[in-house]
UniProtKB/TrEMBL annotation:
EC annotation from Swiss-Prot or TrEMBL: 3.6.5.-
Gene symbol of the encoding locus: obg
InterPro entries, A to Z: G_OBG, GTP-bd, GTP-bd_Obg/CgtA, GTP-bd_prot_GTP1/OBG_C_sf, GTP1-OBG_CS, GTP1_OBG_dom, GTP1_OBG_dom_sf, OBG_GTPase
GO cellular component: cytoplasm
GO molecular function: GTP binding; GTPase activity; magnesium ion binding
Descriptive protein name: GTPase Obg
Organism: Maledivibacter halophilus
Function: An essential GTPase which binds GTP, GDP and possibly (p)ppGpp with moderate affinity, with high nucleotide exchange rates and a fairly low GTP hydrolysis rate. Plays a role in control of the cell cycle, stress response, ribosome biogenesis and in those bacteria that undergo differentiation, in morphogenesis control.
Length: 427
């Protein structure tokens, strides 16, 4: 089954917690702190595998979470870093942030990688918190949380040339004749249900990839039928071969069909109107009134299009068409459809601000403080140790938590809840 779009959740592993421990050798009864640092959490990394053709692997499993780093150990021993989680995708995959729509990675070449959810940094052990006045720190730093988000995966075929046109005009037959592709061919009045690829080689040393884009219908730009799913694959092509049924044996008007398809392309993405098009007037062997072709050709050439009379079934006119396309591809520069971030291979810490965001609110008579950085702070604090508590309060003050509580009208003796911890406020 051809799957070219998926929505998944990715989360980097949590960093390991720093260790709280003290030297306790036989002859060192009051040794100093020796807690080691926690290991780094694993990152979620996407890697291109040219052997994959679809996003089928992501159809049923929707959540991917990397492993957490190990906690620090005694004797200043670091916790082990977690292994990264590698997710393999086919070439042509774009990774988008589901919430913002921003492009995080554009993966096109074999083995290309992109870090999409970075693992959390390991926390520092209590050995780092020893000072001249604090000889035995009874606290350590918790590991950072890994980045997390929902992402959209979109596969856009890596083809140089796309075949477009209404259903049943002969695109699949044309692809099968000029390449070694084997699409299903029949007298369908709807459309091929998946794109097919083939390689055209008419000039020694030069070849190009040709894609049979499933037949479009009116309203495709609005998602009618499978419009959006198919139009997406045209965006990477450098040139389009527009196939029309010149015979008119099914009552179709090739000129109107041509205009309708171009309207769908332009309305889906205006930049597609910039694509160079070559017209393949197919089923010429079934046309009895040759004047009809000449009239159509004259009309198209006046608009700047090159027209080739062909018969995919009888295999006539195909070499001339493919030779012309091969020559044109050497002259055409890539036209970017979507702007990809300059550093799209690495997911930058856009989520860092969210991780540091604090929520200070009042519910009933209670005041509540929430946020991932505060949750981490609570975990790192030993509330039975006065130095650890002072550090906790100092960080809350620096972050402006007390100022926000005052704005909400807190009074001495009011209860403040920070996750599982409750304390009375005194200004």
């Amino acid at each position: 089954m051809f799957i070219d779009k998926a929505k998944i959740f990715v989360k980097g592993g949590k960093g390991g917690n720093g260790n709280v421990s003290f030297r306790r050798e036989k002859y060192v009864p009051a040794g100093g702190p020796d807690g080691g640092d926690g290991g780094k959490g694993g990152s979620v990394i996407f890697e291109v595998d040219e052997g994959l053709k679809t996003l089928m692997d992501f159809r049923y499993k929707k959540k991917y979470i990397a492993s957490s780093g190990e906690n620090g150990r005694r004797k200043k021993m670091f916790g082990k870093d977690a292994e990264d989680l590698i997710l393999r995708v086919p070439p042509g995959t774009i990774v988008k942030d589901e919430e913002t729509g921003a492009i995080l990675a554009d993966l096109t070449t074999h083995k290309q990688r992109a870090v999409i959810a970075k693992g959390g940094k390991g926390g520092k052990g209590n050995v780092h918190y020893k000072t001249s006045t604090r000889q035995a720190p009874n606290f350590a730093e918790a590991g950072d949380y890994g980045e997390e988000r929902w992402v959209i995966l979109e596969l856009k075929l890596l083809a140089d040339v796309g075949l477009v046109g209404f259903p049943n005009v002969g695109k699949s037959t044309l692809l099968s004749v000029v390449t070694k592709a084997t699409p299903k061919i029949a007298n369908y009045h709807f459309t091929t249900i998946k794109p097919n690829l083939g390689v055209v080689d008419v000039i020694d040393g030069k070849s190009f990839v040709l894609a049979d884009i499933p037949g479009l219908i009116e309203g495709a730009h609005e998602g009618v039928g499978l419009g959006h799913e198919f139009l997406r694959h045209i965006e990477r092509t450098k040139l389009l071969i527009h196939v029309v049924d010149i015979s008119g044996i099914e009552g179709r008007d090739p000129l109107k069909d041509f205009e309708k398809i171009n309207n769908e392309l332009a309305r889906f993405n205006p930049k597609l109107a910039l694509r160079q098009q070559v017209i393949a007037a197919n089923k010429i062997d079934l046309l009895y009134d040759k004047g009809k072709f000449e009239k159509f050709k004259l009309n198209m050439e006046e608009k700047g299009y090159k027209v080739f009379p062909i018969s995919a079934v009888a295999k006539t006119g195909l070499r001339e068409l493919m030779l012309y396309v091969t020559e044109q591809l050497d002259k055409i520069e890539d036209i970017p459809i979507e702007a990809v971030e300059a550093d799209h291979r690495t997911f930058k810490l856009e989520g860092k601000e969210k991780r540091d965001e604090l929520i200070v609110k009042k519910e009933g008579n209670n005041y509540i403080v929430e946020g991932k950085s505060i949750e981490k702070l609570v975990y790192s604090t030993d509330f039975s140790d006065i130095d650890s508590i002072r550090r906790f309060q100092s960080i809350l003050k620096k972050r402006g938590v007390f100022d926000e509580l005052i704005k909400l009208g807190i009074n001495d003796g009011d209860i403040v809840k920070v996750y599982d911890i409750e304390f009375e406020y005194y200004g």
